[in-house]
Design a protein that fits this description.
By secondary structure, the chain is α+β, with helices and mostly antiparallel strands. Helix content is about 35%, strand content about 20%. The structure holds flavin-adenine dinucleotide (FAD).
């Protein structure tokens, strides 16, 4: 692409968090960028959805303090994480069954203290958890051969309440894959950064505003203000490379580089003109996906949970978020069900009713909801299984890069993996300029 380098002009396809991170990183360097997004809204799988007159999200999201690049990107586009995210020290609460709270001590003492003072564990379990932590630390959080999280837990006798209320919920929330089939190595990577990094890395960061305003919308403003373009309702149906550059559909424009920032199940359709990419396409086509269901239930304003985020077990719901405590929408609860399960067989009405009854067992006298709505994201993330091979950002086609939460990373499919991937794709493009 030698003759094009002096007039770099990058097409980013997909305006999820990865695509917008790539576009911002390029715009920061003064590189002309055009973002093409099929939908009429930004944000992809982490987007705002208008519902019953309020801006909510397609799914309740949570960040953690270790998401350094996401926080840096937010700051870069003027979205102040300290104002827009509620920062809570690591705490897990299963009312009447289990609770763990990290005191404000330096890491990893905060976690050791949290484990040793956790309610709902026997002394034996507390000591066993502390031993597991020190054993993983001694191995620098690396295992020789990847295995399911459940197998790693069994090897280290992390059973009973420890598995049920601590490790398994952390695993399914972070990897969106049940412990029985989730990658222990990816789980340990997060463990390393979140639980054994700086103390603030383990904080939960819960959005106070809808996801669109958290990053994708300010990011689009930033790109436009830097001279770039963001086109919504602009699906790209074909991609090709000619001697003059990349061609999107039959458009006249040519781009020196293309960053494909669509979801893993959407990428294949855009690669069929590139024979060299056949092995990579086959690899991505073999990905298995996990759903995430979010059920919003609007109760009268006096209904509230004791915590912004409460763990549930025994039914279908895993976490309840009290949006009244988070976004000031009193009486609105968001119930989250990560990964596959029996709930997928229910109709949305039946599921919402079952969730209302699960909540009723915890909040006696709970009135009927004023409205409820289930958003089922059937391919929320890839299933993060042991040894999964994820594609690199750089492809076998010159000038063509992938970005997205599914590209090679030591993190599972998360906002942070998406943002890091977008930034890396932008860096690879920039490096070609030098
Ligand atoms: C319900 C739910 C809850 C989640 N909870 C969390 C959480 O708590 N914490 C966390 O860190 N992560 C969470 N995640 C994961 C996180 O949302 C994703 O990892 C992240 O949003 C992926 O971003 P992406 O940019 O890689 O892909 P996407 O968001 O999928 O973006 C791809 C974009 O490309 C567009 N596109 C596709 N094809 C074309 C085309 N041909 N032309 C133009 N545009 C196209 C799509 O419309 C989309 O906007 C959750 C996901 C879901 C669904």
């Amino acid at each position: 692409m030698e003759d094009l380098d002096h007039r770099m002009n990058v097409a980013v396809i997909g305006a999820g968090w990865a695509g917008m991170a790539a576009a911002v990183a390029l715009a920061q360097e003064g590189i002309p960028v055009t973002v093409f997004e099929a939908a009429r809204h930004l944000g992809g799988r982490a987007r705002s959805v208008a519902m019953e007159g309020v801006d909510l999200d397609n799914g309740q999201h949570i960040l953690i303090g270790a998401y350094g690049e996401s926080l840096r990107m937010m700051r870069a586009v003027g979205a102040d994480p300290d104002r827009l995210l509620l920062r809570l020290p690591l705490a897990l609460e299963y009312p009447g069954k289990f609770h763990l709270r990290a005191p404000r001590l330096p890491a990893p003492l905060h976690l050791l203290a949290a484990l040793l003072t956790a309610g709902g564990l026997t002394w034996g379990e507390r000591i066993s958890a502390a031993r597991f932590m020190t054993a993983m630390r001694a191995k620098a959080y690396r295992i020789e051969a990847d295995m399911p999280v459940a197998a790693l837990l069994a090897q280290h006798r992390q059973t009973g309440a420890l598995a049920r209320y601590l490790w398994e919920p952390l695993c399914v929330s972070a990897l969106n894959t049940p412990a029985a089939s989730a990658s222990a190595q990816v789980f340990l990577n997060l463990f390393r950064d979140a639980l054994d990094g700086a103390r603030a890395n383990s904080d939960f960061l819960i959005p106070r505003i809808d996801l669109g305003r958290l990053f994708p919308e300010p990011a689009a403003d930033f790109v436009r203000a830097s001279g770039g373009a963001v086109r919504l309702g602009a699906p790209v149906r074909s991609l090709d490379r000619t001697a003059q550059g990349f061609v999107l559909d039959a458009a006249a424009e040519r781009y020196s580089h293309a960053i494909l920032a669509v979801g893993p199940h959407q990428v294949d359709a855009l690669l069929d003109r590139f024979a060299a990419l056949a092995p990579m396409r086959q690899n991505i086509a073999a990905f298995v996906y996990e759903p995430i269901y979010t059920c919003y239930l609007q109760y009268p304003p006096q209904v509230t949970m004791p915590q912004p985020m409460t763990g549930f077990d025994g039914g279908s719901v895993q976490w309840i978020f009290d949006r009244g405590r988070l976004n000031g929408i009193s009486g609105l609860l968001a119930a989250v069900i990560s990964a596959r399960g029996a709930h997928q067989a229910s109709s949305q009405d039946v599921l919402a009713d079952a969730i209302h009854r699960e909540l009723g067992a915890f909040l006696p006298g709970l009135p009927a909801p004023l409205w409820s709505r289930v958003i089922a994201e059937k391919r929320a993330t890839f299933s993060c299984r042991p040894g999964l091979v994820r594609p690199e950002n750089r492809t076998a086609v010159d000038g063509l890069y992938l970005a997205g939460d599914y590209t090679a990373s030591d993190y599972p499919a998360t906002l942070e993996a998406a943002v890091r991937s977008g930034m890396l794709a932008a860096r690879l493009v920039r490096e070609e300029q030098r």
